[in-house]
Amino acid sequence: MIEVRIPEEKINEIDKKLQEVQEKTPNELKKVVNASAKEARKELAKEVQKRYASKKYNAKGIREQISIENATVGKVEATLKAKGEATELGDFKVSNMTPGTRKMVRAKVLRSGGMERLYDAFVVRFKSGHVAVVERAHGKYMRAAKKKNKHWEKLEKKLSPSVPQMIGQAYDKGDVDLQQTLYKKLEEHIGAVLGGTK
User: Fold this and answer.
1) So which domain of life are we looking at (predicted)?
2) How far is CA 151 from CA 35, 104, 106, 161, 168, in A?
3) How do residues 107-159 score in pLDDT, each as one tens digit?
4) What is the spatial distance between Cα 58 and Cα 180, in angstroms, rounded to a whole number?
């Protein structure tokens, strides 16, 4: 007869380890969620940089626009919040950013695809020195307008997606799998705890 039996001292060791794990569970879950949130922020920033032809934001710059509300033992969930207003078109890839030239302005926001012609747009330098791609606001005139013609129409900056919008697009398209990131971190932490390395 062959018996397969776990020695009593080993059973006691396993039982002790499981009790320790149970005590650690809330804190470990908090760590997992917070680590996953940081990883998600990094992945979202990389995806936005890969998708958009932004000259203003690199991956680090995008990451800095995303804040994290960390999980706690009592509330095991983290929240990522992106900030930022609509960015100017000039912050993306534009063929000509020299004020006063008659060249057709072409631009693109997404890295994929070609440059789009902007027939009504042109580049100006404001009194502040800021250079922007603008177009005339048809039917809206400057306060000091002497005549109601196109030369006195207000200038409106051409705008592009804000950082929150770009991040939302990357997330909605499924390019970053936050759930998979969470599962990966969870497995790593479970292995570490059971292995006694935490």
Assistant:
1) Bacteria
2) 56, 19, 22, 28, 38
3) 999 998 889 998 888 898 988 999 999 888 775 656 555 556 555 577 788 88
4) 25
